[in-house]
Amino acid sequence: MSQQDQDHSALQSDQHEVQAAQFAMRLSLAVGFAMLIGKLAAYFMTHSAAIFSDAAESVIHVIAVAFASFSLRLSTRPASHHFLYGYERITFFSAGFEGALIVVAAIAILFESIHEWLAGLQLQRLGSGVVLILVAGIINAALGYYLIRTGRRTNSLILEANGKHVLTDSWTSFGVFAGLGLVLLTHWKPFDPIVAIVVAINILWSGGRLVWQSAIGLLDYSDPEAGRKIRAHLDALCTELDIQYHGVRFRTTGYRQIIEVHLLFPRLTSVSEAHALATILEERLPAELGMPAEVITHLEALEDHAEVHHHQHYTGKPG
Fold first, then answer.
1. C-alpha distances in angstroms, 163 versus 137, 182, 195, 196?
2. Which residue, of 218, 237, 271, is where some domain finishes?
3. Taking CA atoms, which of 29, 50, 184, 207 is between 20 and 30 Å from 57?
């Protein structure tokens, strides 16, 4: 297969993955609206604090998915003369926004649950509400796993974060189902706000983790496991091409890896030969890694690169 055919095939694959991610996000938004309507109906039927906690989390989820859908579309736009590196890092902002909304929902649930408990619990028609919540939990569990799997396959942090949120929503529903089941079995109404408080604490933890992941992404955190994988493939490629390297740095945009590496060539190697070998490495490394990546190489002379770096460090001037 020619290089042109390989490039065309890679472009088609990327377009297919983008379309798959966008379809998954639209599906998440549609299901989110349906779940919200169902949970609100269950709350007005039962006046359950636990069901209120589940419905409140769904309100936040719909808002977050709408923003995530916008972020996904923006992240796939090509670079422009104002944004030379593209828009992919919106993924971290999106995950942080979603996490912050989850935290807000958890605080609201805690407040409302304690207020309902102190004001006196008035529960009714729990049976119908429990059935609605169980159905919502099952649907969200299936959707969450689908979103996470699609997000990992398409290297979409936005979609993966959304899938984790949906999965959290499903566990919330299952927790509410269990709590209301205990109320029905024991007729002890405080199980309802107790379950809501436990659910809120779980939601708070989930939202906090998303905010943390967003923060370290924006700060260009370098995952050690990704670093080991990159260096292992660099070792193999550089051995094959008879090149030495050092100064590896990498970061993720939330979709692809940006990898910088200094390549060392004997002093007598021509610039054109060194450039040709560097280009081979730049093209092959992403394929070997099996993920979207941009490789940036810096060519140096093998014999005196340490001396040049030492001179620049102490003088601040090119060697």
1. 14, 29, 23, 22
2. 218
3. 184
Among 36, 200, 207, which residue's Cα sits nearest to residue 133? 36
CATH code where residue 174 lies: 1.20.1510.10
CB 169 within 8 A of CB 23: no
Give the residues across from 300 on adjacent strands.
264
Query: Residues 279, 199: one domain?
Result: no
Tens-digit pLDDT profile for residues 119-177: 665 655 666 777 888 888 898 889 888 888 888 887 777 777 778 778 877 877 887 78
Residue 255 token pair: 């979709």
Q: Nearest 5°: phi and psi at 134?
A: -65, -45
Q: DSSP states of 271-317 as a string?
A: HHHHHHHHHHHHHHHHHHHTS-EEEEEEEEETTTHHHHHHHHHHHSS
Instruction: State whether 50 and 150 are in the same domain.
Output: yes
Do 210 and 250 fall within a single domain? no
Instruction: Give, in degrees to the nearest 5, the angle at Cα 158 between 282 and 89.
Output: 50
